[in-house]
Q: What sequence folds into this?
């Protein structure tokens, strides 16, 4: 890799000759591969992978697996994520102790959102946002596969959140940056780097923070992160947030053995920030700062009346209503069937709602917040899709199969499939089932983990896997290495 001369000159002045030489050498090495296990979906067998020290479910792999052809990857049992960025866990674990409404502002493709959702205390709601439309659908797919029901996916510009003043207890802003920390994984980042682009990124990041800051509650937590090395996008932006809004930088306890670096500002070394360099830690470049918004009580909650308006979703026993307030067109029998697909313990805490001919399950405690979000933002999905009514038939939604908290597996006949059958299913191809397989909607499982639904009509099984999620590759590699059979 040929590093841009201006980058080399600047970064050498930032780190010193010896440290920069080690960094430049590390950037020419093969990057490590890491993933996070999903605690909601334990693997059939836990591989003996090396742990990421700052992330409880983070694991390093000794080689890259063929993730595309691993059914357990598509089932949401793990997420492939860069290890350094998992440090978000330490900020959340050390400062969040009760239920919160959290926002992941720049969330696609979903690494930090799936991680954050696993870290938040029970009763929390996560709003994951992505402005770019195509990326927002990828985000929704990954969160659906992760399987936690208390998630809302939105597709908005940060400026759109200004009407939701003091709404969030926690905001994570992993802002778009110059990407210096991804040089050895992304040749495009190297080619597009320039001092002018760094300055443009700094200005863009400040606009993003200025737009979203009013949405944070007084006393709320703000996680600012980038995957770059320079001080303009890192320390100087944190200092700008502190000076402009009086934010309090918060220390995060770390272990010296982790190799995390601190503040590189010459006149501000005491401000706690956390830097990951690939020659010091096993991971890519990453920067994080945790700040608390002043709790001075002087900020008016402009959306207080909005929040206190009666929600269309009443508390208590599960109700069903259209999102536009009109009576549902879905029959009572269809609703009864949908209810029978949910775990009994979800009966008193989740409500069925109707959007067109689709039934969704949403936590009652979050109904008012979701109603508020719908009035101000472009909501792509909220809660968990349960099924789609077509005449007298109710087709189970793939999101239900993925939901680790809502799906009652015993509500469907479970059919265990082989590896080859699983790949065929994920390609949305025809699945051949034994002649004695029950008819109707079946839940396909691979190594005991739900993959999705089919409808067995006797002479064939209709594949209900989402077409837009299918494995598009028509070939199978000569050597397949998956998490459950890594050789």
A:
């Amino acid at each position: 890799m040929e590093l841009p001369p201006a980058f080399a000159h600047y970064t050498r002045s930032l780190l010193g000759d010896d440290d920069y030489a080690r960094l430049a050498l590390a950037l020419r090495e093969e990057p490590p591969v890491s993933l996070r296990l999903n605690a909601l979906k334990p693997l059939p067998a836990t591989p003996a992978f090396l742990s990421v020290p700052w992330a409880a479910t983070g694991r390093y792999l000794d080689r890259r697996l063929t993730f595309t052809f691993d059914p357990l990857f598509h089932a949401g049992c793990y997420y492939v994520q860069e290890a350094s960025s998992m440090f978000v866990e330490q900020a959340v674990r050390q400062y969040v102790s009760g239920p919160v409404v959290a926002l992941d502002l720049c969330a696609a493709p979903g690494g930090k959102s799936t991680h954050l959702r696993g870290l938040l205390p029970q009763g929390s709601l996560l709003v994951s946002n992505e402005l770019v439309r195509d990326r927002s659908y990828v985000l929704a797919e990954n969160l659906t596969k992760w399987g936690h029901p208390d998630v809302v996916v939105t597709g908005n510009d940060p400026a759109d959140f200004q009407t939701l003043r003091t709404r969030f207890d926690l905001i994570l802003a992993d802002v778009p940056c110059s990407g210096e920390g991804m040089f050895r994984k992304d040749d495009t980042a190297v080619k597009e780097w320039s001092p002018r682009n760094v300055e443009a990124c700094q200005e863009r990041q400040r606009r993003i923070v200025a737009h979203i800051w009013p949405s944070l509650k007084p006393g709320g937590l703000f996680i600012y992160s980038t995957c770059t090395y320079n001080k303009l996008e890192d320390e100087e932006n944190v200092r700008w947030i502190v000076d402009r809004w009086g934010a309090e930088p918060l220390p995060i306890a770390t272990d010296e053995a982790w190799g995390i670096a601190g503040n590189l500002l010459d006149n501000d070394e005491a401000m706690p920030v956390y830097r990951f360099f690939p020659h010091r830690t096993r991971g890519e470049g990453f920067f994080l700062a945790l700040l608390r918004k002043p709790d001075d009580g002087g900020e008016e909650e402009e959306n207080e009346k909005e929040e206190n308006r009666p929600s269309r979703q009443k508390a208590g026993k599960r109700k069903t209503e259209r999102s536009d307030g009109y009576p549902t067109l879905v029959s009572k029998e269809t609703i009864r069937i949908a209810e029978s697909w949910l775990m009994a313990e979800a009966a008193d805490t989740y409500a069925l709602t109707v959007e067109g001919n689709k039934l969704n399950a949403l936590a009652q405690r979050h109904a008012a917040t979701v109603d508020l979000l719908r009035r101000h933002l472009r909501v792509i999905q909220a809660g968990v899709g349960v099924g789609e009514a077509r005449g007298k038939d109710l087709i189970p939604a793939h999101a239900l199969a993925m939901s680790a908290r809502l799906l009652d597996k015993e509500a469907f006949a479970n059919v265990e499939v082989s590896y080859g059958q699983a790949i065929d299913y994920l390609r949305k191809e025809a699945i051949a089932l034994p002649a004695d397989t029950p008819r109707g909607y079946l839940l396909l499982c691979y190594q005991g983990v739900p993959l999705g639904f089919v409808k067995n009509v006797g002479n064939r099984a209709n594949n209900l896997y989402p077409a837009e999620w299918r494995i598009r590759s028509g070939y199978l590699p000569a050597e397949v290495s998956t998490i459950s059979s890594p050789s």
About this structure: Residues 312-402 form one domain. The chain has three domains: 5-30+81-292, 312-402, 410-469. Residues 300-327 have pLDDT under 50 and may be disordered. The first helix runs from residue 5 to 15.
